[in-house]
Amino acid sequence: MKENIFKKNDWNAKNCPVRNVLDRFGDKWSILVIMILGERERMRFNELNKEIQDISQKMLTVTLRSLEADGLVKRTVYPEVPPRVEYEITDLGRSLVPYINSLAAWANVNIKEIQASREKFLVGA
Fold first, then answer.
1. How distant, in Å, are the alpha carbons of 12, 54, 98 from that of 95?
2. Are 30 and 24 in contact (CB under 8 A)?
3. Pick from 10, 34, 61, 65: CA 20 to 30 A from residue 28's CA?
4. For the chain, what percent of residues have pLDDT higher than 70?
5. 49: how many CB neighbours lie within 10 A of its CB?
6. pLDDT of 9
7. What is the signed CA dihedral for 23, 97, 106, 19, rounded to 10 degrees?
8. CB environment 80-111: b (16+ within 10 A), e (fewer)
9. Could you tell me the pTM of the whole model?
């Protein structure tokens, strides 16, 4: 069995780096925004909103602010009329992309088995 890298007291929300970081990605939008910006590097708000067709403007704003607060996305406002705002992935955000891509690859390989298990669970419930 693989050794656990955390001490027992590290599992609480305050001390656990895994819980602390994953709590921010618990929503369905953050990882998607990072994946898109990881490919495109820099985008305007409306471009992101069009790319993620089923996200509301409010939810995209909340998501981008959270990612900015964590240092994964940078927001730049250009002093133009009308103002132009661009979002770009930071080096920290870019360092996360390979891990997200690995998770996405795992999901693609295993989605049929997961869906079949869900259906079997619902039938048995």
1. 26, 27, 7
2. yes
3. 10
4. 87
5. 16
6. 56
7. -20
8. eeeeeebbebbeebeebbeebeeeeeeeeeee
9. 0.80
Cα–Cα distance for residue pair 70/64, rounded to 1 Å: 10
Distance CA 48, CA 22 (A): 22
Environment class of 37 (CB within 10 Å of its CB; exposed 0-12, middle 13-18, buried 19+): buried
Once rounded to an integer, what is the mean pLDDT over residues 66-82?
A: 93
Give per-residue pLDDT as tens, 79-95: 989 888 999 999 999 99
Strand order in the sheet with 73-78: 42-44, 84-89, 73-78
> DSSP characters for 21-59?
HHHHT-SSSHHHHHHHHHHHSEEEHHHHHHHSTT--HHH
Cα(32)–Cα(104) distance, rounded to whole angstroms? 10
- Residue 13 CA to its chain's centroid (Å): 19
- β-bridge partners, 87: 43, 75
